[in-house]
Amino acid sequence: MAESQILTVIRMWAAVAWADGVLAESEADGLRRLVRTAELTDEERVTAAKIVETPTKLEDIYLTELSPDARRGIYRAAVRMALVDHVIQDVERDVLRRMQVLLAIPVDVAAEIEHDVPGFHPA
Q1: How far is it, in rounded angstroms, from Cα 72 to Cα 87?
Q2: Rounded CA gap, 77 and 55, in Å?
Q3: So where are the chain's domains?
Q4: Between vectors from CA 88 to CA 98 and to CA 22, what angle results, nearest 5°?
Q5: Distances from the Cα of 36 to the Cα of 10, 48, 52, 84, 112, angstroms
Q6: pTM value?
Q7: Is the N or the C terminus of the chain less surrounded, counting Cβ atoms within 10 Å?
Q8: Which residue, among 29, 30, 45, 8, has the nearest Cα to 79 in the 3D structure?
């Protein structure tokens, strides 16, 4: 059975949060809040909780079937997640670049999104 879109999104955001090898408490809080409030089945909620608590890497998951607005929203949230601990490591930037490609977001659109997120400074 294919993973639900919301689980895939949680997995992608967790990958950004874990990219530097550490899940900061602020990152964990944000992800846990998402898991609590998302429309998930009980089984999906258990899976999502495990995703948050386990170092996660960004897999080659393509979400291009989502609307452009949805893909931009996912990317914007990932950029914000990378900033939650107030430090953006190079590895987090690398994960964001991969996510941008996986979501089929043009480079110029990704740059606009990053520019609009307070505190994010492109490398």
Answers
A1: 22
A2: 19
A3: 5-116
A4: 90
A5: 12, 9, 12, 18, 30
A6: 0.68
A7: N
A8: 30
Q: Which two tokens stand for residue 81?
A: 């997640």
Q: How far apart are CA 82 and CA 62, in angstroms?
A: 20
Nearest residue to 50 via CA among 107, 11, 88: 11
CA dist 95 and 83 (Å) reads 13
CA distance 117 to 77: 9
Rounded Cα–Cα distance for residues 22 and 50 (Å): 15
> Please, is 86 exposed, middle or buried when counting C-beta atoms within 10 Å of its C-beta (0-12, 13-18, 19+)?
exposed
CATH topology of domain 5-116: TerB-like (1.10.3680)
Q: What is the mean pLDDT of each run of 10 residues along the chain (123 residues)?
A: 76 85 87 89 93 82 74 87 79 86 91 89 70
